[in-house]
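Final report, Chapter 2: Outcomes

The project's central promise was a pipeline that accepts a single protein chain and returns its three-dimensional structure in a standardized token representation, suitable for archiving and comparison. That pipeline is now operational. To close this chapter, we reproduce one record exactly as it appears in the project archive, with the input sequence first and the structure output second.
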Amino acid sequence: MARFSDAFAAADVDVVMSLMTDDCVFESTSPAPDGRRFEGQAAVRRVWEELLATTSERAFETEETFVHRDRGTVRWRYSWRQPDGSRGHVRGVDVLAFRDGKVAEKLSYVKG
């Protein structure tokens, strides 16, 4: 969990993906109310690459983590500068499932 969060904070997609299973699942926070579901390494990688390509001065901060057996949660704050120069941020929680030492599922939720 710590390496995964650190890789996000460093915006290192290669490391993030190396810590996810081949059949990984990511459920995004948008569009509301349910987000979108992405399955497999290629689809999930595209999401991270798109996010990093469309935001600058981004910061992913871990506020709290909890791991028990094959489940984990991370409470986080993500901030960025938008193309028009304005700043934004969201706070949220990820619910993760682990398999064989890797992240198999990452379900993201945001406040508001």
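Archive annotation: The mean pLDDT is 93.
This record, like all others produced under the grant, will remain available to the consortium after the project formally closes.
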